[in-house]
Each structure stands twice: as structure tokens, then as C-alpha cells.
Design a protein that fits this description.
By secondary structure, this protein is mainly alpha-helical. A hairpin with a 5-residue loop joins strand 1 and strand 2. 76% of the residues lie in helices and 6% in strands. The protein has a 3-stranded antiparallel beta sheet with strand order 2-1-3. Helix 9 packs antiparallel against helix 10 and helix 12 runs antiparallel to helix 17. It starts with a strand and ends with a helix. It has 3 domains: 54 residues; 87 residues, Type II secretion system (T2SS), domain F (Receptor-associated Protein, Up-down Bundle), CATH 1.20.81; 258 residues, Type II secretion system (T2SS), domain F (Receptor-associated Protein, Up-down Bundle), CATH 1.20.81.
Length: 413
């Protein structure tokens, strides 16, 4: 009997996904063999011969695989799936429709895989778990609870709303940072042109004047000569230093220090703190609404916040909550991370049994705070940049003009 080599992914009872290759007569026999080992088959594909792989390479597919699925596409998937299920469509029919509507090639392939897994009898959460890197732990966990409690439509709407809020906050922050970034890059580019093209031409003329050069002029000319002589080495060292710095930020001790001090930066520290607080409050509120246990909720939320200091506090809180300690008491021990307003509102929510409601109010409050900070950021940063530009231009002008005036005075003009 002919055996086929299958590339498969399967999950155990704990939800851990494993992948591998195995010979089997067909997919049904493969699923049976894995089941005897305590594994549930998620996906199976026949391994193509090497020649087929060699001659069927699709550049678009490769680029699609390397490009992450945009947040807007995932939001489209969650929102429309909720609408279709609420309208009475079967899960398979809804997934089939969505796979035809999405314009993202990678997401289309993922939805087809999810639909195939659901057709084999898997739950939507189990099918999504094979693609957790795309959808995230929060998405999968909430869908799992939604299926268990019969609130899948509500949960999908909550997930879509969470994605929309995240996208809005990120867009506001990027928009606020774009203007200062453009100014700084433009300033750096103009400064480089001055040092490499303008000053070398003027320095020869200035030296021929035969007058004592001021300190600022000597520094500028010396810097220009140094850049012209060792420019390639400076660029190489700069790239190496930048690469090492980028790599160092992933080292736990360095990442911890950066996360801690980023919360105390002028202007930006407040923005980072409020953004992470808003995300913590909204995500935990939705998990509470969905019925996820508090310990599990804190573990999930710890992976959704971007600041490592926030993450460490939430992981610590998840361990202490197991012992019966109230959440607001734990968060109050870290005033550098969570403001008193958060712990006080959370205490009221725990006393009245309205934790999700209080967290949602806090999320709305801090999202408005982030919006206000981003609106005012350009107003605050613009004068600082203008002063910096004025100082730099003034130094250039004085350093270049002063020797010329000095030479004119020596000849009596």
C-alpha cells in the first residue's frame, strides 16, 4: 500500500502545538495514530516532491509569508465573523466567505487552514491556536472562553473593538512622533551636507585670509576635515554601534533598565505609562467580561503590554492573586507603574463586584489622556526644535562670518 509523507501540526491536552513529518496511508490514519499518542491533529499536508517545490516558487507567496498580517485585517476578520455568526451562518460557511473576501494573501491562507481544521471537528479556538503567532494569545484565549460559555459573538466583537482601540492609539502616537522625527532627520541631513560639501570649500578660503581663527571656526573646520578623511569608518562604526545597541535591548538586564527609565522620561515617560495603563485596563476588562479567570487574565495581559516593567508587575500579581491577595493591593505596591487612580478605582470595583466596568472606565480615561498628550506633543516639541535649529544655524553663521569680518578690519574696510 502506498505511503504518503505528511507534514503535520498537532496539539496536546495542555494546548502545546508540535509539528513534524510522518508516513501514513491517508490523513485519517495519521489522525488516528496521533490520537493514540495523546495528540489532536490540527493540520496535515502532503509533502511535495523536491522538483515541485523547486519549480513552483511564487515570489508573491514568499513575500506574503514574510509580511505580518496587518492589525486592520485581523480586526476585519473578527468583526465580520461575529456578524456572520450572529446572522445564523454556520462557522464553516462564515470562514469560507471570509477567506474569499480578505485581500491579504497570508490571512486568506490562514483562514482556509482554520476552516479545514474546523471541518475536521476542531473547535475554532483549537484551529486558531495553530496560528497563535498571527492572532495572539489574547485572541485565542477569548475565543476559547466564548465557545465554552456560548458567547462567541460577543467575544469576537470585544476582540475587534480591542484591536480598533489599539490601532487608534498607535496611529495617534505615530502621528505625534512623525513631525519631530522628520525635523530631526532633515536637520541631520542638512548638517551632513554642510560638513561634507559647504565647509570644505569655505575652509580653504577662510584659511587664506591669514587671520587668527576663532575657536568655533577651528572646531567646525577640524570636524569637517575629520569627517571627510574618516567618513566611511565613521559610518561603519555607527552602523555597528546601532546594531549592538538594538541587540543589547533584548538582553534582560538591559531591557529591564530601559523599561524602568523610559517611564521617567520627560513628556514621553508619561505617554508610555498612560498607553500601557490604557491597554492593561481595556484588555483585562474584556477578559473579565468574557469570563476568563483572573489569574489567567493577568498572564494574558502581561503579554499584551509593551513595557517590560508593566509586564513584570503583572506576572508578579498573577502569582500573588493565586494566594488570595486582592489585585488592587498588589498594584498599589508599584506606584511607579500604576497611578493611585487605577488602584483606587480597582478597589471600588472589587468591593462592588464591578471590576470589568471600572476597568473599562479607566481605559476610556487613559485613552483620552493619550489623545491629549499626542495633540499637545507637537506644540511642546516644536519650539524646542526651532530653538535648537536656531542655535545650530547661528553657530555656523558666526563661525564662518567672524573670520571674514576680522580680515576686512585688518585691511581697513
Amino acid at each position: 500500500m502506498t505511503m504518503t509523507v505528511f507534514t503535520y501540526s498537532a496539539t496536546d491536552r495542555t494546548g502545546k502545538v508540535s509539528k513534524g513529518e510522518r508516513d501514513a496511508e491517508n490523513e485519517k490514519v495519521l489522525a488516528s495514530a496521533l490520537k493514540q499518542e495523546g495528540l489532536l491533529l490540527l493540520d496535515a499536508r502532503k509533502r511535495e516532491p523536491l522538483q515541485a517545490i523547486r519549480f513552483n516558487i511564487n515570489v508573491g507567496e514568499i513575500m506574503g509569508a514574510l509580511t505580518p498580517v496587518p492589525l486592520s485585517e485581523k480586526m476585519f476578520f473578527a468583526r465580520n465573523l461575529a456578524v456572520m455568526i450572529a446572522a445564523g451562518l454556520s462557522l464553516n460557511r462564515a470562514l469560507e466567505t471570509l477567506s474569499g473576501e480578505t485581500t491579504n494573501a497570508k490571512l486568506k491562507s490562514v483562514i482556509v487552514d482554520i476552516n479545514a481544521a474546523v471541518s475536521r471537528g476542531l473547535t475554532l479556538a483549537d484551529a486558531l491556536r495553530a496560528h497563535e503567532k498571527i492572532f495572539g494569545e489574547l485572541f485565542v484565549s477569548m475565543v476559547e472562553v466564548g465557545e465554552t460559555t456560548g458567547k462567541l459573538t460577543l467575544v469576537l466583537k470585544l476582540v475587534a473593538n480591542q484591536m480598533k482601540r489599539d490601532a487608534t492609539l498607535r496611529k495617534r502616537i505615530r502621528g505625534a512622533l512623525m513631525y519631530p522625527l522628520i525635523i530631526v532627520l532633515a536637520l541631520g541631513g542638512i548638517g551632513t551636507l554642510m560638513m561634507t560639501y559647504v565647509l570644505p570649500t569655505l575652509s580653504a578660503t577662510i584659511k587664506e585670509l591669514g587671520v587668527a581663527l576663532p575657536l568655533s571656526t577651528r572646531i567646525l573646520i577640524g570636524t569637517s576635515d575629520f569627517i571627510m578623511r574618516y567618513g566611511i569608518w565613521i559610518a561603519a562604526v555607527g552602523v555597528i554601534v546601532a546594531a549592538l545597541a538594538w541587540r543589547a535591548r533584548t538582553i534582560p538586564p538591559v531591557a529591564r533598565v530601559l523599561a524602568l527609565y523610559s517611564l521617567h522620561l520627560p513628556i514621553f515617560g508619561s505617554l508610555i505609562r498612560k498607553y500601557n495603563t490604557a491597554r492593561f485596563c481595556r484588555t483585562l476588562s474584556y477578559l473579565e467580561t468574557s469570563g476568563v479567570p483572573i489569574v489567567r487574565s493577568l498572564e494574558i495581559v502581561s503579554h499584551t503590554v509593551s513595557n517590560l516593567r508593566f509586564r513584570e508587575v503583572l506576572v508578579e500579581a498573577s502569582e500573588e492573586v493565586k494566594k488570595g491577595v486582592q489585585l488592587h493591593t498588589l498594584l498599589a505596591k508599584h506606584p511607579d507603574v500604576f497611578q493611585p487612580l487605577v488602584t483606587e478605582m480597582l478597589a471600588v470595583g472589587e468591593e462592588t463586584g464591578k471590576v470589568a466596568e471600572m476597568l473599562l472606565r479607566l481605559a476610556l480615561f487613559f485613552e483620552e489622556e493619550v489623545a491629549d498628550v499626542t495633540k499637545n506633543l507637537s506644540t511642546i516639541v516644536e519650539p524646542v526644535l526651532m530653538i535648537a535649529i536656531g542655535v545650530i544655524v547661528g553657530i555656523f553663521a558666526i563661525s564662518i562670518l567672524q573670520p571674514i569680518y576680522s580680515s576686512l578690519s585688518t585691511i581697513g574696510i
